[in-house]
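Team,

Forwarding the record for the chain on the shared tracking sheet. I've put the sequence and predicted structure together so nobody has to dig through attachments.
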Amino acid sequence: MLFNPQRNDYVDAGGPVRYLDDTGLKRPLTAPRQQMAAMAAFVLAAAVIGGILLHSVLDAVNGGAARAQASMEENLARDVSYDLPALAALASLDDASIRQTFADAGYSTVDLSTEEEFPSGGFELAKLPSDVSTVDAGLMYAQGIAQLSAADAARLLKGSWTLTVDRSEALSMNVRYADFSSGDVNAAVQAAVAAEGFDPATVPEDGQGVDEVGNTFMTGTVDVDGSTYTWRVSAIALSEVYDISGLPDSAVYVGIRLTA
């Protein structure tokens, strides 16, 4: 490109060399006032939106945890009865009669087994809390108790129990439930013994303590229609059975077994 001394983008420095005009580069780097106002508005809007998003995230994390804890405590405070089955009174009944006993009492139950699982007779069922529908309970059992939130687990476990009747050899009846009120395993064992009407006087010298897997237990005998049956009540921390964060540390898992 040939040099043209008449072009206005060059300046005369008073010598033989002409330089490009740098006036535009020396202009102040300040945007016009109207543009500055628009930029400030954008910054303010971004700050407001960011604040709202941050508040939503913090509320979802902190507020959500608080609401979940409150829901769990509310479910545990429900006035629902366990209505534990008196195993000694059921021992002489057949499967159909046991089921009919529960129906006559107005219990809502869910079958957890099939006839194929107990070819010699027997079954497994769950008695539901009076305020939990079979539909809701079925969904929770399908999900798996260990996978439930603390609030849902408290809703299902408070006031429910699972009964297993096995007739493959000698009759064996076993009821299991979560105890949220006794406070510790020893108190839970004593409460279960009293609820079943078992006589602590039948407990031998070595019939109570802690077994090899950590269960606190008590065992004795009871007479059923002239036959002697052995009962055993055991308890362990609920957290040892279900790893559900948020449930009370004092919750206990109780098992009551009656065998011929």
